[in-house]
Design a protein that fits this description.
Layout: H1 11-16, H2 28-31, H3 33-44, E1 49-53, E2 62-68, E3 73-79, E4 85-89, E5 104-106, E6 111-112, E7 119-120, E8 126-128, E9 147-153, E10 156-160, H4 169-180, H5 203-209, H6 216-219, E11 240-243, E12 248-251, H7 262-270
Antiparallel strand pairs: 1-10, 2-3, 2-5, 3-4, 4-9, 6-7, 7-8, 9-10, 11-12
């Protein structure tokens, strides 16, 4: 475990960033539907969103779907015949039917809509229209799948649902991205074991919970009680905290020189096959 700072409370971060203030935060941003609608329009529909890794689609034709409820859309990410990664709104241009149900796989031919059989290539172009002779003045190019801006950084795939993004992915990541450029993310193993749950709550409640480990001794005391804490730092106070113009970075202590709990053993056994260090 890393050396514990002499100051075992987080007052010093407020001294570093006094603009954050120390007063209670307002509740409106967490409960107001109008506030959330503004966040949806000004944040989620404008910024670059991480949707996956390049290892998920290593070969031409490989694809996966990301349903983005916060943007009210579904995104199809696919590697083309030319090796290029592209992203599209997962929607047939004919009646707006969802083109691919979800999940991931390999498309060996065309993405075909199950409603009327319209079919699209890996590049999003419209390749087949059932009973095409019955239509008037068709413009196939205008009926292609709607593209979504996509870019990669260190193997991470990002998309931007804004039709004309105001900034590049590099500009969006800024100093945060520069600081981690070159890190061997591709050498890390990714688990295929996961679980999910739906909570009826504002997204910032979830985000706030993962900005600290203060809750672990209370909430997870039977499962992972001392992963991020030890007697000298029992509340898991941060070792370092840094704010950038658009992002933030936090360093937390990790207590790995111990016997894993039953829950951790189970997760490791049915997860990626990783070993306890």
């Amino acid at each position: 475990m890393a050396a514990v700072p002499k100051t075992l409370n987080d007052h010093k971060w407020h001294e570093t960033y006094p603009e954050l203030g120390t007063e209670p935060i307002p509740i409106e941003p967490y409960v107001s539907n109008e506030y959330f609608d503004r966040e949806r329009d000004l944040i989620f529909r404008k910024v670059w969103l991480n949707v996956g890794r390049v290892e998920q689609i290593p070969k031409p034709g490989d694809y996966f779907v990301r349903d983005l409820a916060v943007c009210k859309t579904s995104i199809l990410i696919v590697r083309g015949r030319d090796g290029t990664i592209r992203a599209f709104h997962n929607m047939c241009a004919h009646r707006g039917n969802k083109l691919v149900a979800g999940g991931s796989g390999t498309c060996k031919g065309l993405f075909t809509c199950k409603f009327h059989g319209w079919a699209y290539g890996l590049d999003g172009s419209l390749r087949h229209i059932a009973d095409e002779e019955s239509f008037f003045n068709l413009n196939r190019q205008a009926l292609s799948m709607t593209p979504v801006s996509v870019d990669t950084w260190e193997g991470f795939i990002f998309i931007n649902v804004d039709g004309n993004p105001s900034e590049s992915l590099g500009d969006y990541l800024g100093e945060f991205g520069t600081g981690f450029t070159g890190y061997p993310f591709s050498e890390l193993s990714a688990t295929q074991f996961f679980w999910q749950t739906e909570l009826k709550t504002n997204w910032k409640v979830i985000k706030d919970a993962f900005q600290e480990v203060w809750h672990i001794p209370s909430l997870h005391h039977k499962t992972i009680p001392n992963v991020f804490a030890e007697p000298a730092n029992k509340h898991g106070h941060a070792l370092n905290f840094k704010l950038y113009a658009r992002h933030g970075q936090i360093s937390l202590p990790g207590n790995y020189e111990r016997t894993p709990t039953t829950v951790e053993k189970f997760a490791l056994r049915y997860g990626s096959g990783a070993t306890v260090i």
